[in-house]
Amino acid sequence: MTDSAGLSRRQFATGAAAAAGIMIVPRHVLGKGKKAPSDTLNIVSVGAGGRARSDINGCAHENIVALCDVDWNRAHSTFAQYPNAKPYKDFRVMLKKEKGIDAVIIGTPDHTHAVIAMEAISRGLHVYCEKPLTRTIHEARVLGKAAKQADVVTQMGNQGHAMEGTRQIREWIEAGVIGDVSRIEYWTNRPIWPQAIDRPTEAHHVPPWLDWDLFLGPAKFRPYHPAYHPFAWRGWWDYGTGALGDIACHAMDAAFWIFDLRDPDRVSAETTKLYAETAPAASRIHYHFPKRGDRPELDVVWRDGNLQPPRPPELADDEQLPQSSGQFYVGSKGVLAAGIYGENPTLYPSKLHAEVIADPPPTRYPRTDGAHKEWTQACKGEGKAGSDFTSHSGPLTELGLLGNLAVRSGRALEWDAAQGRVTNHEAANQYLHDEYRKGWSLG
Length: 443
Description:
Elements: H1 9-19, H2 27-30, E1 42-46, H3 51-58, E2 63-68, H4 72-81, E3 86-88, H5 91-97, E4 103-106, H6 110-122, E5 126-129, H7 137-150, E6 154-156, H8 164-174, E7 181-187, H9 212-216, H10 242-251, H11 253-259, E8 266-271, E9 283-289, E10 298-303, E11 326-331, E12 335-338, E13 346-348, H12 350-358, H13 371-379, H14 389-409, E14 413-416, E15 421-422
Parallel strand pairs: 1-2, 1-4, 2-3, 4-5, 5-6, 7-10
Antiparallel strand pairs: 7-11, 8-9, 8-14, 9-10, 11-12, 12-13, 14-15
Helix pairs in contact: 6-7, 7-14, 8-11, 10-14
């Protein structure tokens, strides 16, 4: 964040401390493994159970000052792990009451990511948000613009982007080891939660440890049911984004980074039976990317519900692709396959892999200490966060959500990326953003 005089918040804080006679000790003066208090981030987390617990632990090298969750039963073990962190249920109360916060972790269901992130950004706080960044394309674009204007450090939790495998995939493809890439395939065993179902009709009391109204947040009101929470929310369109939301920001990340996959002109989907409120049991989604500059024309195919891609002929009879989930790139000289996080990149035929391992392309992209440390270091002015909302994770999330537009529309769509609209089927544009419940907004 920069004030009107052009000083960063860290520069301003350092100058103010000096004026007051306070000595801020550089980390290197304290010796290896020691940090000055002034160089420790004060972090709060919205979400403490489930996936959020892992993100909190990933930032435990900083100061976790407060934790917020609408379900205190689910968050109990995290509260116990961080006894000095004050617990809250409402993130708005936490952000108002807690002073001296530097950064916010968001590990809540998809439908609340945008409103929480926008509140944090509006306060000049750095943000780490779980994937997918948002539930709608409109939200992704708004957050990207807001983060840029506020000059805060942002990172989405697609941790594979900061891992070795993703960098290796890019270096191999850019070195031409598999030649010209014409097709990319993805597949996943998701969903592993209930979906392809109708709304339940049984009546249930809200558990005393859950604030159901806060869980709903900006979503339309409906009565509590255990079919939605905990975790089962992912398959419901009001709260989640199905298998694409869960996995695409991981699996598609490397190709998005390598080929700048931000403007498909056509997206189509084939699915099992469609339901009004939940994602289907399985889908096959086809993205077409026209040639653009140095980028070749590309076909990208996504499969979920345990649908498998055709077996590449480059594989020998005794060779196997990753079984439950993965990605592979079809090139003119061979195939590159990897797991959904970019892990274990492998070349086929096996002779090609042996040649590249024996004489690898040069290392071009710096390695990191992982997504969480990359973010916290960037918050302190050391390096950059690789999956920031503006240039990377926002457009990457949009790519996945475009597939859901095709799924829910039940037809092939033509997409105008510049306008951010479907041009051949107006009804599909209703899914670009939903009206928020009264009392909720993006500011």
